[in-house]
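tool_call: predict_structure(chain=1)
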Amino acid sequence: MGNEVSQYDIKGNLWLESWSPEMPPWPFGSPDGDGWNPPFYNRKGASHGYHGYAYSNELGKILFGTQAYDPDRMRWNDLNINKTGPGTLGRAVDMSGANGSYFVSPKHWYGGPFGVWRLEKATGELVRLPHSDTPFSSNDRAKPVFDSKRNRILFYGAQDEGAKTPTNLLFSFDVSSGTWAKQPINLAPSISEAPASMAWGVAYSPKQDVLMILPGGQKQSTWLLDCATNTLRRLGLGPSTQDHDTNGVVYSAAHNLFIALETGTYGTGPVTVHVLPLGK
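tool_result:
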């Protein structure tokens, strides 16, 4: 339950750490205790290492809710960001290099109303968009991403509200019209069911116009969803993991690479980096 921010330099193949983690004694040293987000010297600690943050291209900062981290200076940045109105922010949208900063809270979260939040850069306000209520539920290991070709947010890992079904549905939020739509998934002939998202393993490549899905699991596969046809196919094996919920994937537009991280059981290190190019 530390508050350090580690950065991976893909050119140098180096991990960089801003400062040594600050781990105070009980009751603030247990991630499952009653000391959530205690006041640390550098900044408040994280409640868990879940995907509650994303890089903002227009700000040049990483947003952890209303807090901002400057990756160039490797220090917290005191931007004046405020959330307006009730409701929880949920998960930050991985923007894949596109401008804009959004958060999505599906109905798994506590503290409604649920929906889509957008950062208004001019005012520094995080505002919930009108009529953006999420028409689905999910688990806390799903991850929204941005489809810059169609100006929409994609949420893979949804499930029908109240249904005990796999978290393998796809919904999209059209930013222009402000509406959610359930997207059909066309399964390739050899696929009987879309995989359930269990490990934040979703990333979008605007260059290939595909959604990569690493669902999690010690023997997971790598899946590609063609966003032009909504066709899902199995690309091949995925990186093996020691634990079912300790991996994630992002897309780097600068390198045209999908980058997946693998940690040990219950988030222990060391962290292994996997990269996958998909061609030109």
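agent: Residues 51-277 form a domain with the Neuraminidase fold (CATH 2.120.10.80). Proceeding to next step.
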